[in-house]
Amino acid sequence: MTTPDEPGTQPAPPASGPSRRRFLGGAALGAAGLVGGAAAGYGIRATQDRPAADTDSGEPSSVAGAVSVDKAAAQVDFYGERQAGITTPQQERLMFASLDVTTTDADELQRLLGRWAAMAARFTQGKPVSDSPGKPLAPPFDTGEAEDLGAYSLTVTVGFGASLFDDRFGLAGKLPAALKPLGTVPGDTTMRENFTGGDLCIQACADDPQVVFHAVRNMVRAARGTATLRWSQLGFGRASATGAGQTTPRNLMGFKDGTNNIHADDTAAVQEFVWVGDETDQQWMNGGSYLVARKIRMEIESWDTDDLEDQEKIFGREKSSGAPLTGGEEFTAIDFNRTGDDGEPVIDINSHVRLSSPEANGGVRLLRRGYNYTDGQDPDTGKLAAGLFFICYQRDPHAQFKVVQARLGSTDLLNEYIAHIGGGVWACPPGVTAAGDWFGKRLFTENS
Ligand SMILES: C=CC1=C(C)c2cc3[nH]c(cc4nc(cc5[nH]c(cc1n2)c(C)c5CCC(=O)O)C(CCC(=O)O)=C4C)c(C)c3C=C
Ligand SMILES: [Fe+2]
C-alpha cells in the first residue's frame, strides 16, 4: 500500500523535548494555507456573502452576536481558550469516535494531537486536509467527500480517557481525580466491551452528516500507525438544546428532550457546572470539561405498545407540549410538591424528571448534548437497534453524572425501556489557542 505523503498524515519530524517540539500544525499545513489568526470565542459567522437559507429545524439562522448565515457556510471558530462543541449551539449531526493509542512514543502521540488540531482548524473552515491534491501516483491528501460542502458549523472536540494515563507515556501522575474510574454505576452491567472506553475520543458535530463523517474519517486516517479506531457512533439528530433560542428537539420516544438543559447563555450555570476551574488537582485541565457518553438502546417496540398516559407518567411531562404534568407550558417550573385528588404526587416519585432533577440530586446539573442514533436492525432479534447516544459535559463526573445516574438507576420508570450498552468518560482539555498549539499541550509540557 502506498503511504500518503501529505501534510495531514506526515507531520514534522519528532522533537525530543518540549522546548524543541514543533508541530506540523504550524509548519507544513501553514504553507498549504492553514488557518488565519486565532479568534477567541465560538461565534458562528458567515464566510460567504450568500442569503440566509431556510433551516429545516425551525431554528433562527443566526445567533446572538453573529450575522445571518447560510447553513453550509456557517463556521464555528476552532481556536480559542475553550474547545468548541461543548457550549456551542448543538448542531444536528454527530460522529463520535473512540480510539486506542498503539504507539508507546509520547512524542509521536503529541504529533498526532498536533496533526489533529491542524486538520480540525481546516475542516472547521470547510477546507480539506491540504490545499494541494497531492501527487498523481499517491493517495490524495484528502479523502474528498466533503469537497464543495462547506463547514456546516463543524466542531471537533477531543478528549483523553483514563486508560491513556498509564506507564506508556509517563502520564500516570497526571490523571485528574475527576477522571478516575467511576466505580459501579447503574447501567454498567449491560455495557458491551466493543462500544466502551478508549484512550482518545473525537466528537465531531455539524449540520451535515457527510461533514462529520469526513472529519472523523480523515482524523482516523491520519492516526494510522499511532492510534486505531476502537468504536464509533453516528447520531442523526440532536436530542438536546444547548443554545439560547434553540428549539427543543425530540428523542426517539417522541418527547421533547433538553428543556431543562444548561443553555450556553446561562453563564453562571455554565461556570458552576461545566468548566473545570482552578480547583482541579491537574492544572492542565483548567478550562476544560469532562465528557461522559452513554450509548442507550431503547426498547422501541415495547415502548410503542405503552399507552400515552403511562408514557407521560414515566417522564412527568406531556408528550406533545413538553409541559410538566403539574401544568403550564414547556418551560414552566415543575411543581414536585403538588398532589392530585387521590393524594398522590402529580409527578410520580419515580418519574424521570423527578429523579434527574437538581432537587433530587443535591443541586447537581449536567450540560446534555446527546443525539438520536440508529444502527439499523438487530440481526439477532429483528428489532430496531436505536436509541439515545447520551453525551453530557461537566466539571466532575464523580460529583455530577455518577450522582444523577445512581439516582436514576435505582427506580427510574424509564429503565424498563432502556439499556446502557456502551460509552465512556474522557477529559476534554482547554482549547487549542493558535496554529502550532495542540490538544492537551499542557498535559505533556508542564509539570503538575
Ligand atoms: C445520568 C444522566 C441521564 C441519563 C442517562 C438520561 C437518560 C435519558 N433521558 C431521556 C429523556 C429525558 N431526560 C429529561 C431530563 C433530564 N435527564 C437528565 C439526565 C439523564 N437522562 C437530566 C439531568 C434531566 C434534566 C432534569 C432537570 O433539570 O429538570 C427529559 C425531560 C426534558 C428535559 O428537561 O430535557 C427527557 C424527555 C432519555 C430518553 C434517556 C435515555 C434513553
Ligand atoms: Fe434524561
UniProtKB/TrEMBL annotation:
It catalyses: heme b + 2 H(+) = protoporphyrin IX + Fe(2+). The keyword Disulfide bond does not apply. GO terms for molecular function: ferrochelatase activity; heme binding; metal ion binding; peroxidase activity. GO terms for biological process: iron import into cell. It comes from the Bacteria. The keyword DNA damage does not apply. Its cofactor is heme b. Keywords: Heme, Iron, Lyase, Metal-binding, Oxidoreductase, Peroxidase, Signal. Involved in the recovery of exogenous heme iron. Extracts iron from heme while preserving the protoporphyrin ring intact. PANTHER family: DEFERROCHELATASE, DEFERROCHELATASE/PEROXIDASE. Belongs to the DyP-type peroxidase family. This is Deferrochelatase. It comes from Nakamurella alba.
